[in-house]
Amino acid sequence: MTDTEPALIALDWGTSGQRAWLLGRDGGILDARDTGRGLLTTTEDVDLRDPRAKAAAYESAFRQACGDWLTACPGLPALASGMVGSAQGWADSGYRTVPAPLDFPSLVPVFHRDGVLHLVPGLRIPSGDDPGDVIRGEETQLAGALETLAHPGGSLTVVLPGTHSKWVRVEEGVVTGFTTAMTGELYGLLTAHGILARTAADPVADDAAFSRGLAAGRRSRGLATEAFGARPLVLDGVLAPESLPDYLSGVLIADEVSHLLHASETHVVLCGARELCRRYAAALAERGVEATVLSEEITARGLWRIATAAGLLEDRLERTLKP
Amino acid sequence: MTDTEPALIALDWGTSGQRAWLLGRDGGILDARDTGRGLLTTTEDVDLRDPRAKAAAYESAFRQACGDWLTACPGLPALASGMVGSAQGWADSGYRTVPAPLDFPSLVPVFHRDGVLHLVPGLRIPSGDDPGDVIRGEETQLAGALETLAHPGGSLTVVLPGTHSKWVRVEEGVVTGFTTAMTGELYGLLTAHGILARTAADPVADDAAFSRGLAAGRRSRGLATEAFGARPLVLDGVLAPESLPDYLSGVLIADEVSHLLHASETHVVLCGARELCRRYAAALAERGVEATVLSEEITARGLWRIATAAGLLEDRLERTLKP
Which interval of the chain is the signal sequence (chains A, B) (predicted)? Predict the structure, then answer.
C-alpha cells in the first residue's frame, strides 16, 4: 500500500455547506470537494417528518458528493461531522458530556446502499442554574487542532470565531468547558436589518474603522450602546457609510474578547476563516495576547484523528486482508 | 376665557405614530387622538426628493388629524415634536447642542393653508473622538418630566426605554449628556430573525423567565453570550420556548442597566410605555435603585411647557385681543 491509496472519506457537513475529502493512509488529502450542499439544500423539498424521505435525501446528497470515490474503492470507511449528526440531520449522533477527551470511541453509524457513514457526536454542557451549551462540528476542529499543534498537552484556550463563536478550554487533551457568543449572528442581523443597515453603504474594507470599532468595543458602555454609536459617527461625517460594517465588526469582536478572555491568558489558538482570525488576532494583540492561527482545513485532520482513534481504518484493513 | 377654551394643538409625530392633543389655557387635555399616521405612513407613496409633494403629504396628514380643531378655532397655535422635525420630516428643525436647557426659544415654523405649525428641535452631542448622539422627540418628554416632577432642580437621571433607550443626565434643568442603547432594536431583531427566533414560540408573559434573564444579563459574560444562552435552556427543557422572549428581554435590559447605570445612582426617573418601565424598574430595584415612573403622556405636558416658554400662546392671546 502506498500513501496515495484511499483510506477514508471524510466530510464536514454543516447547515449551509458540505466539504468532502478523500484521505490517504497517512491522512494526506488525495482529493477535496466543496459542494455547498449543506443541510438546508439537502432537505429543501423534503418532509422532515418522513424518516425514509429524509434518509433518501441525505443518501442522495452523500452519493453526489462521494459516489465516485465509493465506486472506485468499495467499502471505503466514511466519517462525517457537523449538523448532519443533529436531530435535523441524517441521524442524531448525540453529544458527549463535558469534560470529555477528543476521541470518540462510539461513533453513530448510518447505513446506506454502499456501506456505512459514521457520524461524530457533539459535546454538551447540560443546563443547570446556568445555561448549558452544545458544540457540533467544532469538536472535530478541536481534534484537528490538537493533532496539528506541537504541544497539545497542558492548558489551552481555543477560539473558533464565526456565526456562533466558541471559546473552548482544553486541559491535557480534555475539553473541560466552552462558551458561545453569537457575535457573528449579531453582525449579520445588524448589517441586514434595522437602523445600522439603513445607515451603512455597501461595505468597503477599512482597517482604521475596524480599529476604531475595537477601541469603542473595549469601553464599558456596552454592546447595545457602542454598536449604535456607529450611526452618529456616520451622520456626523466622521465614519464613511461603507466603513460602518468594519467599525461594527470591531465593536462586536472587542466586546466578545473583553468578556470571554480570561485575565490570566497570554496565548490562545484561533481556528476559523482567515479574515475572521486576522480580526480576532488584532483584538487579542491589543490586550497583549498572542494567537496561533490554524486554518479551518484542520477539520480534515480532525476527522482523520477521530477515525484512527475509533479504529475505523483497522476495519478496512482487516476487510482488505481477509476478503 | 375658561379652562375649556382651546389654546394649543400639540402633536407627538414620530416615525411610526402620531398623537394629537387639543390643550386648554391651563394645559389640560380637552381632546386627544392617536391616529397611528407616522412618517412612514404619511410619506408612503411620496417621492421624498420632491419638496412640494412631501409638504403636501404632511399638510394633508396634519389636516386629517387636526383639521376640525383648526376649523373650530382658526389661528390656533400648533406645535409638534418627534421625527416630523427631521430631515425626512415636514421640515428639518435641527438640533440644539448639549449642554442645553429644556426650553426652545427658536422653534422652526412650517407654513400651511390654515396657519403655522412649529417644530421642536432635537438635542445633539457632536462626534469627537467618541461617537456623538442625537435625541429627537425625547427632549419634549424630558421637558414634560421636569414639568411633572415636584423637584426639578438638582441632578437627575431620566431613562426613556424603547427601541433606542436614552439615558439622560439633567442638572439644574439643563441636559448635560445622554447615551443611547439600541436594546429594544436588538430585542426586535433577535426575536424576528435568526436562531433565537427559530428557538422561540409565540411569546407568553413569564415573569420568572424575565427575572432569570435579568440574573443572566448581570453576569459578566457579555450580551452576545447571555442572549445565546436562551437556546440551550430551551433545548434542555429548562425554559419554555414561549418564555424565551421574556428571558431575552431580561438579559438585554440587565445588560443595558449594568453598563449605563452610574455606581453612585440611587434614584432614576423612568418614562415610557408602562410595561417596559415596569421591567426597567425591576432591573433597577435589583441594584437597589429606586425609580419614579412617568407615563409617556407627559409628552403633552412637555409640548405645553415648550409652547409656553416660546411665547406661542401669547401670540394667540395678542391676536385674540387685537383682532
Answer: none
> Which residue bears the cell 392633543?
B21
Min Cα distance B257 → chain A (Å) is 9
pLDDT score at A321: 52
Structural domains in chain B, sorted by start: 6-179+297-321 (3.30.420.300), 182-288 (3.30.420.310)
Residue A47 dihedral angles phi and psi, to the nearest 5°:
-80, 105
The reply to whether residue A232 touches residue B188, judged by beta carbons under 8 angstroms, is: no
pLDDT, one tens digit per residue, over B148-160 is 886 656 899 999 9
How far, in Å, are A144, B12, B157, B193, B271 from residue B32 at the CA level? Answer: 67, 11, 29, 36, 20
- Do the beta carbons of residue B38 and residue B15 sit within 8 Å? yes
Task: Tell me if residue A180 falls in helix, strand or coil.
Answer: strand
CA distance, residue A102 to nearest chain B CA (Å): 22
According to the model, what pLDDT value does residue B281 have? 98
What confidence tens digit (pLDDT) does each residue in B30-61 have?
A: 999 999 889 888 988 888 889 999 999 999 99
3-state secondary structure of A291: strand
Q: Give the phi and the psi of residue A259 in degrees, each rounded to 5.
A: -85, -35
Strands B100-101, B133-135: pairing is unpaired
Q: Which residues of chain B does A258 touch, with a Cβ-Cβ cutoff of 8 Å?
A: 222
CB contact under 8 A, B193 and A189: yes
| Residue A322 CB partners (closer than 8 Å, separation 6+) | none
Q: Tell me, rounded to whole angstroms, the distance of Cα B173 from its chain centroid.
A: 18
Residue among B183, B197, B186 nearest B272 (CA): B183
Give the Cα separation of A80 and B12 in Å (integer).
59
User: What are the grid coordinates assigned to B81, written together?
Assistant: 415634536
Find the length of chain B.
323
Calpha distance A143→A137 (Å, rounded): 10
Contacts of B1 (CB under 8 A, 6+ apart): B25
Sort strands B267-272 and B155-160 into parallel, antiparallel or unpaired.
parallel
CB atoms within 10 A of CB B236: 17
